[in-house]
Amino acid sequence: TSWGWRQYEHLAGAGDLFDMTIHRLDFAMDLLGPIAQVCGAVARFASRNATSDGKSCPPSNVDDWSSLIGEFAGGATGVWEGTTLAKGYHRDGFGHEWAEINGSEGSAVYRLHEPNTILLGRNGHDLAPEPVPERFLKPADSPRDPREGKPATVFRYDLMWEFVSAIADGRPAVPSFYDGLNAQIVADAVLQSHRERRWIEVVRGQA
After folding, report:
1. Alpha-carbon distance 10 to 96, whole Å?
2. pTM of the prediction?
């Protein structure tokens, strides 16, 4: 995370939680539905009072680690951990993004640095890579060729295409403003849980 505005609470609100973990919350809710309640914690381990070239700067006052347990409205349970300090996972700048779903019949893992492959393990077997079918690599109407470019980068072009197309077509975008709002509500609940040392019920924003 840069030395800019994201390092200071009065500008960013929070650190890793609002910068990166919030994306994982949004991703999880897209797959499993709304989160009903959370119990979380944040911490800051690095002082961050000097720039990378050794110049002094105001110390950061936001979290560089966050973790939470969430209970989904549908009955599933999730565990999240995020940090800017996992320096051993560079992966061309994409870091350690590991999203795992486990059920009675098997496990599935998504990794951001290999977005076109899912690790899939059925009951009684180990995880093994499975290619994502091409029809799922982009929105149906996106003009992007999913076989071109670096997979972990070019999928972002679809986000811009969807946003601009929704404006041009006069339709709601997917994801919507309310998807982002509800991810922010969950992240805010994590901070409240940390302050008050208790579970927090999540009240969703409505369209």
Report:
1. 28
2. 0.92
